[in-house]
Amino acid sequence: MKAIIPLAGKGTRLLPHTHVTPKPLMHVAGRPVMSYILDDIIDLGIHEVVFVVGYLRESIEAYVDDAYPQITANYVFQDIQDGTAGAVALAEPFIDGEVLILFVDTISDADLARVQNVDNNTGGVIWVKEVEDYQRYGVILTDENDHMVSIVEKPSEPVSNLANIGIYYIRDWQLLFEGIAHTLASEVGPSGEFYLTDAFQYMVDQGSKIQIVPVNGWYDCGNLEALIDTNRYLLEKDRAEVKDSAVVERSNIIEPVRIESDAYVIDSTIGPNVTVGSGARIEGSRLTDTMVGRDSIIEKSDLNNSLVGSKSEVRFSRGQVSVVDDEELIGDQ
Q1: What are phi and psi of 107, to 5 degrees?
Q2: Which CATH number fits the domain 2-220, given the four candidates 3.40.50.80, 3.40.50.620, 1.20.910.10, 3.90.550.10?
Q3: How many Cα atoms within 13 Å fall on the side-chain side of residue 245?
Q4: Domain coordinates in residue numbering, the chain
Q5: What does the pLDDT look like over 9-37, one tens digit per residue?
Q6: Which helix (H) or strand (E) holds 103?
Q7: I need a surface site. Which of 111, 132, 173, 301 has the fewest CB within 10 A?
Q8: Between vectors from CA 166 to CA 23 and to CA 142, what angle results, nearest 5°?
Q9: Over the stretch 119-150, which tens digit does the pLDDT of each residue have?
Q10: Residues 57, 58, 61, 67: what is their CA dihedral angle, to the nearest 10 degrees?
Q11: 241-330 adopts what CATH topology?
């Protein structure tokens, strides 16, 4: 089995941070978002991945090549942002069997090992999450056997509360690409994009059985508020830790917190829901619901619901701030 991971988007909901850091490399609970997905697929035994790259592709390729040398990485460039169907279509030359397709806007507790026990009559699996605000998502209608019947994008009526979370296993891979070709040959929608879900609909219409599997947890990483919420979830799950080489003096730590190697925390209150990057220095400050990048300095500040990039300086600041890499923010003393 191989995997396809589309990564070409610009991450506009996380601007200005994504001017310099591609969205898949934004950190949450001390690690890039995409690393959680890559670890999951390696655990599943997948070692060949097609990365569909575009915006800031050099950063993504350098990270994968350095952090995951055990992966055979194939890169295809999506120069025209024509949607998810267009992205996956670019990977077709590398696919010759069953495939896992994963979008890295979110982190979930999807049990990917489920694909190892899929029966021969099943053409694919789509993971879903029950949601209350169904109007925000593409939702899936199912039959009595939990097979997909159709997908409705952002319905105005409560036709289903099963939100598509962007993780797919496809056994009928040839039919998938046939459906993608059919989708790309159709008239483009009002958004100017072609959707992968239309290819799934084509598969179902041709008789393929796509199983729907629910997940308990699904955590967005697409905007600042969601990133901070996901940071809390991961810290509470298993990522809270104060590294041995971190220095914490005359400070109060309120769990869950993660403080990386060689960070300094002096005369401060840290937590809850805070990550402090390696080499960062926090002095005379209070941080809650905040993520601080590596080698940054925060002095005499009281921050909440904030994101501070790497190698930045924040002094005499209060409230919510969003500071990109290598930026300086000095408030009133």
Answers
A1: -120, 135
A2: 3.90.550.10
A3: 8
A4: 2-220, 241-330
A5: 877 778 888 888 888 999 999 999 999 99
A6: none
A7: 132
A8: 160
A9: 889 999 999 999 888 878 889 999 999 999 99
A10: -130
A11: UDP N-Acetylglucosamine Acyltransferase; domain 1 (2.160.10)
